[in-house]
Specification:
single chain, 9-stranded mixed beta sheet, two-stranded antiparallel ribbon, alpha+beta
Length: 390
Amino acid sequence: MVLLQLALKNIMGAKLRTWLNIFVLAMSFILIVWGKAIVVGMGDQIIDAMKDVELGYGGQLWHPDYDEEDPLTINDAHGSIPDELVPGIEAGQIVPILMATGNIYPEGKVRSVLIRGISPDQQILDLPSSVLKDRKGVDYPALIGKRMARKNNLAVGDMVTVRWRDTNGVFDAREVEIVHIMNTVVYTVDVGQIWFPLETLQKMLVMPNEATIIALGKDTGIAGDLTGWTYKSLDDLLANVLELLRMKNGGGNIMYGIMFSIALLAIFDTQVLSIFRRKKEIGTLMALGLTRNKVIGLFTLEGSLHGALAFILGGILGFPFFRYFAVKGYAMPIEGDEYGFALGNVIYAKYGADLLIGTTLLLMATVVLVSYLPTRRISKMTPTNALRGR
């Protein structure tokens, strides 16, 4: 307790230098926590959006010939839907999706598109597929996304020619009507894609009861391969996204490390300067019976108090800042798909207990270490030389 009182008296006696160190350290703490929370929030938003809109929550079954990175495999990657999946499909918890490549001809231009077929009754993907159901007077209703509509100057009610090649290699074309334009942050179900009712597309491609991929809901009980189908877990489906997020987080850690090192350097310099200028004080304390270890502990405590006060100040100044970005979010300067991610126009920071406690403990341990390192010189001092200022 005596050492704590003495340490507090000493750091408060430094006045402006102390508060400058505390302020710089507090701002570093705020920026590190905020930056990590933005990355965590961004990652969760991307993953949740992809699960909701594109992947489902139970993984997927892929036709063995399907390769999402090779468009040339799509037309040959289709197979009969297993009979054991029919009850789940009828309940809307399993969603077959059929794919094929084709072209559209908006305003006399030709555009390559990915044609997808999905059941209008499905319930696990957050897509407005129900708009494709029972369109009276519309033989070929089509659903597209806002990016697709903007790029091709299409609007609801427009007719556009779609051409495809069926399973026999025969080319065919029809005039289809755009019945809805969806607004989704997941650009991979929007850009260059056009959606039809599953049965309609199966007839167009002469592929009855066939699909390319099958999205699974949470409680389907399927977690492995089926005959003729390869199971992909969510970890498999999200592998590229998770790797990109790890890379971004690693790059951020380098920046945070540089930022915090600058703040710690100020504490280190303060400790070195204190020991240099306070040699007589150190000698007096030793002469009064204070052991070297206690003197070292006093100086280490002084440096550590900078960190403790910085975290208190950081909490006071940072709380409204943190809350604002958790509630209002960070507005993206451009649409998220420009970055290659399924992001909306706003990123919301996410502050978990592990982030706040882990960051605080890590930074506090670093502050204590940096405060201790310069004090090792005290162990080499003798009281007489210290009293003489040597």
